[in-house]
Amino acid sequence: MLWNTRFTDPWNDDLWSTVRGLRRAFDDLGDAMRGNVRAGEYPPINVWSRDDGCALSAEMPGIDPASIDISAAGDTVTLRGRRTVLPPVDNAQCLRAERADIDFTRTVQLPFPVDAGSAVAQYRQGVLSVSLSIASEQKPRRIAVANA
């Protein structure tokens, strides 16, 4: 039965799994080039470098700012939180559910260590903004030259 060999031939199964893997890789590359967020990467984050540190912004609509935990250690910043979707009122029947409760953790590595003590965070209109300074031991220091 030649028409059934494609379902039992291990070489053929490996070939199709390889093709599917390549397809996913190209999809991820296209998403990255368009700036789209891949599955599992929540919240979407932008990071900008400045002379004295960096600025980070994350889209977090519908999240209670009190549930957001921001930590910085060395050259990494981690955002943790929970998004909770409110239940419908009056025992309404759900016709479509695309939003769900999620716990998220997002860690970003920066090109320099940061001073966690001087970090400032603000949440406004669903966007979290964090300003981070370069750790003092990493900042360039001016050295005075003495007259001899």
Description:
It is flat, with a radius of gyration of 24 Å. The chain starts with a helix and ends in a 14-residue tail after the last strand. It is built from two helices and seven strands, in the order H-H-E-E-E-E-E-E-E. The protein has about 150 residues and is an alpha+beta fold. The longest helix has 25 residues, at about 10-35. The chain has two domains: about 10-40; about 45-90 and about 100-135, Sandwich (Immunoglobulin-like), CATH 2.60.40.790. It has helices at about 5-10, 10-35, and strands at about 45-50, 55-60, 70-75, 75-85, 100-110, 115-125, 125-135. A hairpin with a 2-residue loop joins strand 6 (about 115-125) and strand 7. The strands form two sheets. The chain has a four-stranded antiparallel sheet with strand order 1-2-7-6, with no helix packed on it. A three-stranded antiparallel sheet has the order 3-4-5, with no helix packed on it.
